[in-house]
Amino acid sequence: MRRRRSTYSRQSSRNKAFIIFLIGFLIIVGSWTTLKAYRYFNAPHEEKSIHLLYLEIETNKNLTLGEVLGYRNDTEGKYVIIQKGGIYFYTLSPGWNFTRELEITNRAWYPVDVETSADGNIAQFLTIDLPSKTLEPKSSAVVNLTILLPTENVIAGKYGGNLTIRLIPKKA
After folding, report:
1. I need a surface site. Which of 2, 7, 139, 158 has the fewest CB within 10 A?
2. Chain centre distance of CA 119
3. What pairs with residue 161 in β-bridges?
């Protein structure tokens, strides 16, 4: 005579099978999600930063010949204040020039191309000098931002704009 399994025993077997299936399914889904997240956050992607530029020009000063030619020994650090995201060139006069260095770092594990641009009414006075257009992984480069004010036809006032720096993954 055959023994019948109890209802409790059959239900318990089904529950165990379902729990084992559920755990396996969750492990597969969790692994797949982790892989997708890893690929997303570590994939080459473009980075863009925008810095506010500000310049104030005064024309009512009596300028010396050295000032007109753009040479002043006491201008270093006097007219530039760096705050969060902003580069401020304060109170320069016509004929003066001032250079500020800005360091760019590639923190990624892949090389990037660097693109810089300036907009706004300050762009007419700004020269951006980038020695290399490509940054290797985990390396830095210095960008020279130079304000060159002509001696004639400069209107006193406040000028502003944005400096945009883009790090674009280099195509293989």
Report:
1. 2
2. 17
3. 53, 120
Name the DSSP letter for residue 78.
T
Q: Look at residues 131, 135, 125 and name the one whose alpha carbon lies nearest to residue 157.
A: 125
**Rounded distance between C-alpha atoms, residue 68 and residue 76, angstroms:** 16
- Give 118's strand partners: 163
pTM of the predicted model over 0.85: no
pLDDT tens digit string along 77-130? 333 334 445 677 767 777 778 888 888 888 888 888 998 888 888 888 888 998
Residue type, 87: I
Cα distance between residue 129 and residue 143, in whole Å: 6
C-alpha–C-alpha distance, residues 20 and 158, integer Å: 70
Give the number of other CB atoms < 10 A from CB of residue 57: 19
Residue 161 to residue 172: CA distance in whole angstroms: 34
Backbone φ, ψ for residue 26 (5° rounding): -65, -35
The identity of residue 147, as a single letter, is I
Tokens 């889904």, residue located: 29
